[in-house]
Design a protein that fits this description.
Blueprint (H helix, E strand, L loop, with lengths): L3 H8 L6 E5 L4 H13 L5 E10 L5 E5 L6 E9 L3 H13 L2 E10 L4 H7 L4 E6 L11
Parallel strand pairs: 1-2, 1-4, 4-5, 5-6
Antiparallel strand pairs: 2-3
Helix pairs in contact: 1-2
Amino acid sequence: MVDVATLLLEKIPFDATAIGGLTMGADGVSFITAGVAATRGRLLRAFSVRKEVKDHGGGGRVAGALEVGDHVVITEDTVTRGTSLLEAAKVVQDFGAQVVLLLAVVDRGGTVGDMAAKEGLVFDALFSAPDLGFSYEGA
């Protein structure tokens, strides 16, 4: 049986160097995918985007191994409107990294691709709501 991390890795561009997104929905997806990638000889640094700036520790909104200039996949477990993906992408771009893909496990809304395209970003998902036997939310 193929696991979710393997399916995600198949969609991640080869030039990607980091994976992360808005905490909490992206954390499991990002860190597990980076771990599986490492077992296959592929380095993907993992990070989280905090919901707000912290005034202790490293501070800022980015926690983890993101570096300036990284080619980043922004991920999420499920998306409906895509606002979490776009918020994380903005933080990463402001940090000095390049977003190469927005990637969700499940797309519940069906509108994220159009929203991403308006921002010059590419969106993909492993599964859509219809793939799983449901209508898109709001449809």
